[in-house]
Amino acid sequence: MTTRLRSSVGKFGRPPRVRFKIRTQLGSEARYFKDLNWLILSNVFTKSTVLIFIYFQGILPKKNRDQKFETANSTNFMKKSFVKIFILQAKPYLVYKMRSFGLIFFCYPNEGRSEFPEIELMSIVNSKLKCQSNSFGTYYIYLFFFEIPCVLISNWTRGGLPNFPRPLRSQAFAKLLRLDMGYFDEPINSTGALTARLATDAGKVQGATGRRISQIFINIGALGCGLGIAFYYEWRLSLLTFAFLPFMIVTQALMMKLMTGNFGGKEQQAIENASKVATEATTNIRTVASLGRKAYFGKVYKDNIDVTFEGKVQKINIYGILYGASLGVMFFMFAGLFRFSMYLIDAGIIDINRTSDIFRVLTALVFAAETAGQSAGMAPDYGQAVLAARRVVKLLQFPTIINPASREGQRPEITGKVEFSAVEFAYPTRKDVLVLKGLKTVVEPGQTLALVGQSGCGKSTCISLLERFYNASAGEVKIDGYDVTGMNLKWLRSNVGLVQQEPVLFAIWVLINFHQPCQDIEAALKEANAYDFVLDLPQGLETRCGKKGSQLSGGQKQRIAIARALIRKQKILLLDEATSALDTESEKVIHIDQP
Ligand SMILES: Nc1ncnc2c1ncn2[C@@H]1O[C@H](COP(=O)(O)OP(=O)(O)O)[C@@H](O)[C@H]1O
Ligand SMILES: [Mg+2]
Predict the structure, then answer these.
(1) Considering its fold, how many domains does the chain have in total?
(2) Ligand 1, from 181, 185, 427, 432: best to mutate by most atoms within 8 Å of Cβ?
(3) Is residue 439 exposed (0-12), middle (13-18) or buried (19+ Cβ within 10 Å)?
(4) Any domain includes 375
(5) How far apart are the CA of 456 and the centre of ligand 1, in A?
(6) Cα 370 from chain centre
């Protein structure tokens, strides 16, 4: 090869002195090319064998893994230090740790060795660079000033856009509060599932905003610069990269597809199910304990978490192969570039004096490929973000029929006449079962109406229709002759007080937190027969009542709820078995016939 090159140089009729110089230089460069080819090939080979090895190792029998998981679980985590926790964590995932160990031990020494010829080469090229170093210095000063606005812009996008998920999260929550009751009746929209979605989705959207966006801009810029430089110095060589481009795109596209595909959906469902089980079990921990169902809930939770684990294992394996393949394509591209540049020099297409240009092109292409690889690394985050954004947007655009935030509708002063005329109703989740079949009744102002019937006959349903939690399927619900569907929802609900069978007292509130005159509060508490026991509480009216009012007895909760309703002095008071937990004495004291 060297001889042929020498002869082609000879054609240009260089003086012998120069020829000698070139010969020595070319000799070591050619050796370098040969070495590098072998190094790259061996690198590709070891990497692919390690990947195959790790892939097959990753498929451990499921039973084995579960056992490990259980022994790890049964040990007391809190008792031991961080190291202990780390070891416990590592046990079931040992196989997966192997990957990283494997990669460090097998690949990096190899990669390290491949740097040596480059250093050797630099010393050759250095002599040429020396004369250019002055102009390089100037370039770097230009770069320095160019860098300032770039960093400013990138920080601006970083600083500005990460705020995006934050309002998104509160927007999603605000939307949740405005949704129809029918939405919450759906099993897939349980409390646990909704909180999980609220907590994770808005956060995941960040994967496609803020830092990512600025990084993508930087990468596009770097890629453009790299390719630009490469094309400027040697277009033939640069053109070769395009032959590898389809393979790169295919592997990247497959990686993206993997992350946004069905896997994400199945896993998300499992996470939501798990958090649904966790919320239900913890909020009703007494029931769970008394029924002896702790193990059952534990198992359901674990099964769901396992689904996410399985999904991840599958994904990691396929992702690993794809990532390996995309790296492989890159290395084959380098190998091809070196071979092709050899050919170009060999065939006399590239002047022997321009070998430094080849290195410029190669460096620029390596740089471009690296940034492209970096962007590819962001694919999973981006894929997840797209999925999460899809779910959030779906929630935000979910149609609300009964909108409490609406400013429209009548706001009449009412006296309190309630009228049901031929009302028919079926719950949205059970459209084929009519709960109310042509209900007709009139309640005059000042009158008290008691609905009596077996449980499940539709008493609470009537109340829900009057509060307009749902719309009647047929017929009309009227207050003072106004159809409730035509009234402003906020106005309607401010005129109708409701005490439910299981009153809810919020943990974040003190017992009574209305800005009302003291004597009104006192009167309401006395009327609800709650005054005496409230005074006996440690902080009186300022007492916080714990999660769902758990620090109060059922009867006390009901009395507080009745007082809370009485205090507002609404025209219509609805009591849905509100005194079911009261002793007969209290029940007598509460004058439910005088709202
Ligand atoms: N959110 C709901 N979704 C579907 N069906 C419901 C819902 N709430 C109640 N039901 C059904 O409607 C019927 C009437 O319930 P309800 O009005 O609560 O009875 P009650 O007279 O005991 O208060 C029952 O058969 C019940 O199963
Ligand atoms: Mg009821």
Answers:
(1) 3
(2) 427
(3) buried
(4) yes
(5) 5
(6) 27
